[in-house]
Amino acid sequence: MAKDQLYRRGSFNSYQSNTSDEDMVEIAGAPLDFSLADDVPPLDREPQEGYTYYNGTGMNGSSKIMDFLDEPIPGLGTYEDFNTIDWVREKSRDRDRHREITSKSKESLWALIKGLSDAFSGWLVMLLVGLMAGAIAGLIDMASHWMTDLKEGVCLQGFWYNHEHCCWTSSETTFEQRDKCPQWKSWSELFLNQSDGAGAYILNYFIYISWAMAFAFLAVALVRVFAPYACGSGIPEIKTILSGFIIRGYLGKWTLIIKTVTLVLAVSSGLSLGKEGPLVHVACCCGNFVCHLCTKYRKNEAKRREVLSAASAAGVSVAFGAPIGGVLFSLEEVSYYFPLKTLWRSFFAALVAAFTLRSINPFGNSRLVLFYVEFHSPWHLLELIPFILLGIFGGLWGAFFIRANIAWCRRRKTTKLGKYPVLEVLVVTAITGILAFPNDYTKMSTSGLISELFNDCGLLDSSQLCDYINDVNSTKAVDDLPDRAAGKGVYMAVWQLALALVFKVFITIFTFGMKVPSGLFIPSMAVGAIAGRLLGIGMEQLAYYHHDWIIFKGWCSPGADCITPGLYAMVGAAACLGGVTRMTVSLVVIMFELTGGLEYIVPLMAAVMTSKWVSDAIGREGIYEAHIRLNGYPFLEAKEEFTHRTLAMDVMRPRRNDPPLTSLTQEGMKVEDVETIINETTYSGFPVVVSKESQRLVGFVLRRDLIISIENGRKRQDGIVSTSTIYFTEHAPVQPPNSPAALKLRSVLDLSPFTVTDHTPMEIVVDIFRKLGLRQCLVTHNGRLLGIITKKDILKHIAQMANQDPDSIMFN
């Protein structure tokens, strides 16, 4: 039988007390302190009036939680840390609660009002989640924009202004040099009173790296000291939590505060990371915080996950300014259980979050993201060939990145490198700063780089990428410029972009997974946008100089605006992001919402699907699934088919030559016998049989419920001692005179545990676990109990069948 090493042996009191500061576990290389577990109600909290606790009887209806008490027992029906919830039990609890509210609402007006408020509470929770996510995202955007510019200079009008805002009000700014104004001073101008020369360059270089190191050190220090869970992207853990796994503290208040602060610091340091992935984690922390305000979400883990699914949609909504894309992202990428009701509420939360961010207007341009762009030229059918080439590049880059990054993260976990997270962050920051500063396209923020690459060059654009040789006799409109010959600035930009591409490809491998908040969306998009812009410029010049070639003849005549390099950058960005994450529908919608152009959906679809096909041909896992497997989380992927011809008897525990399955009998066992079994084993639950001889199955009782029930029986029922008999039957067994009082525990017994026969094909068993969210399933033969299959057993079996290490699955 599969053992769960997370349960403590011996001490019953450990289930009622708070975990100590010494209880640490290593997850993804970060020491985790269970004392920060503030996202799950403590066991000793008083139960709320009118709330029906689940009675452990599966789908057999509700009764009193304990037969020897009139009131519910705090802690019964809750879960230990690093365990999977029982979806069937949680949904049964919610149905019982809903039935009670419905029946009471017919009795009085006050009960009817309470019932209506309960129904409306879901929408109120979504409103609050959207408001919080939008407000925090706006704060992060403004702070990171200001701190990024702080590395290069300061505004004399007010140090809190970033470069762009500082020059807005200046009357001495020209259109061609709109980023230069007397109010904004670089550090060399401030200290040396000169902007050019070797001394000025060295001083700016030194201060740039100093600020980057300071921001990075502060970020990693805050994460390490206050909230170890605030590091990384957070999406792999969010996916695992939404599948039913418990990670206490991961969505707590400290994690929310520290992740918000350190995300600003990490982005401002210039590291090759983005804030979009961590914003999903931040939004889910907001969702978890709001859940505490509502009883039905606070006390039901399945209902709470409905809110978290909607919160993840709100996170993507504010990250990309894409509410519909956020809903589809939640549905396609992170959610495990997504009923229609959650779809509507996700849409509402994403809408509120986007509206809140729009009201804050963090970039001052009435847009939700920095790299919003509109293209004016249509695309031609023959351009699908370079778009598909970009898709192939995105798929190859995605597969290469996943393998390289997982290999580096595994090395970090298994060597001394993982013991020095602060040093690692500082070294990578120093290397990034030293290599990034000389190149204008790596020195700027990654969001600014993407904005520059997506830009469709106009006649008045002063960027190097728009340094074309203009035809002075052209009568075309400003937004409909013909293809032009590239000038010196474009050729210089091409070389800088080629170097930036190599730099971004390799530095991102070492950056993602460090002990600072780090998203992958923006770095992946940057790699694709650079490759796409380079290809777009090449196609543009090819069409200009060889418009008589057969591939251009008929649609690209001289003086026509045929090729839009910015469109190629956008398609490349989508292709690379799709290759890394394996997103499809949601990614296309997100990119469409970014550009506001319906006519570019087909190129995006072609590139994204090609990218997915290529990357899937090399490796089936996306980056988030790969990190889930690396960390040993019990995530049962719903997208993969189980095709092996094995049976339940091949997977169940105990196997042949193993000790027999530990079980309890429905009557005749003493309290001390049960306590001995609990102390000597680490199993998460025990089957209950009629007798040891017959092995006829009666039900299943969870270890945690058993411990809490025995403790409360000793405290609150007179005469319960170690020699008292425990029984799970409806009526008390006949006992000799003068024997101690018996303890009835039938109400904590699940009388309808899921069972399969020993000859059930494993593909059916895997399907049952996926669709019902089971923790365990009992195996019988002709009605007799043979063994048990847990979620951990299934994951180990799948890993074994795929020639992977089954011992990498650490949790149940």
Automatic annotation (TrEMBL):
<keyword id="KW-0129">CBS domain</keyword>
<comment type="similarity">
    <text>Belongs to the chloride channel (TC 2.A.49) family.</text>
</comment>
<feature type="transmembrane region" description="Helical">
    <location>
        <begin position="420"/>
        <end position="437"/>
    </location>
</feature>
<dbReference type="InterPro" id="IPR001807">
    <property type="entry name" value="ClC"/>
</dbReference>
<dbReference type="GO" id="GO:0005886">
    <property type="term" value="C:plasma membrane"/>
</dbReference>
<dbReference type="GO" id="GO:0015297">
    <property type="term" value="F:antiporter activity"/>
</dbReference>
<feature type="transmembrane region" description="Helical">
    <location>
        <begin position="205"/>
        <end position="230"/>
    </location>
</feature>
<keyword id="KW-0472">Membrane</keyword>
<keyword id="KW-0812">Transmembrane</keyword>
<keyword id="KW-0967">Endosome</keyword>
<keyword id="KW-0547">Nucleotide-binding</keyword>
<dbReference type="GO" id="GO:0005247">
    <property type="term" value="F:voltage-gated chloride channel activity"/>
</dbReference>
<feature type="transmembrane region" description="Helical">
    <location>
        <begin position="384"/>
        <end position="408"/>
    </location>
</feature>
<keyword id="KW-0813">Transport</keyword>
<dbReference type="Pfam" id="PF00571">
    <property type="entry name" value="CBS"/>
</dbReference>
<dbReference type="InterPro" id="IPR046342">
    <property type="entry name" value="CBS_dom_sf"/>
</dbReference>
<keyword id="KW-0050">Antiport</keyword>
<dbReference type="GO" id="GO:0005794">
    <property type="term" value="C:Golgi apparatus"/>
</dbReference>
<feature type="region of interest" description="Disordered">
    <location>
        <begin position="1"/>
        <end position="20"/>
    </location>
</feature>
<keyword id="KW-0067">ATP-binding</keyword>
<keyword id="KW-0677">Repeat</keyword>
<dbReference type="GO" id="GO:0008021">
    <property type="term" value="C:synaptic vesicle"/>
</dbReference>
<keyword id="KW-0406">Ion transport</keyword>
<protein>
    <recommendedName>
        <fullName>Chloride channel protein</fullName>
    </recommendedName>
</protein>
<feature type="transmembrane region" description="Helical">
    <location>
        <begin position="520"/>
        <end position="539"/>
    </location>
</feature>
<feature type="domain" description="CBS">
    <location>
        <begin position="652"/>
        <end position="716"/>
    </location>
</feature>
<dbReference type="InterPro" id="IPR000644">
    <property type="entry name" value="CBS_dom"/>
</dbReference>
<feature type="transmembrane region" description="Helical">
    <location>
        <begin position="307"/>
        <end position="331"/>
    </location>
</feature>
<dbReference type="GO" id="GO:0010008">
    <property type="term" value="C:endosome membrane"/>
</dbReference>
<dbReference type="InterPro" id="IPR014743">
    <property type="entry name" value="Cl-channel_core"/>
</dbReference>
<dbReference type="GO" id="GO:0005524">
    <property type="term" value="F:ATP binding"/>
</dbReference>
<dbReference type="GO" id="GO:0005769">
    <property type="term" value="C:early endosome"/>
</dbReference>
<feature type="transmembrane region" description="Helical">
    <location>
        <begin position="490"/>
        <end position="513"/>
    </location>
</feature>
<dbReference type="Pfam" id="PF00654">
    <property type="entry name" value="Voltage_CLC"/>
</dbReference>
<feature type="transmembrane region" description="Helical">
    <location>
        <begin position="567"/>
        <end position="592"/>
    </location>
</feature>
<keyword id="KW-1133">Transmembrane helix</keyword>
<feature type="transmembrane region" description="Helical">
    <location>
        <begin position="120"/>
        <end position="140"/>
    </location>
</feature>
<keyword id="KW-0868">Chloride</keyword>
<feature type="domain" description="CBS">
    <location>
        <begin position="749"/>
        <end position="808"/>
    </location>
</feature>
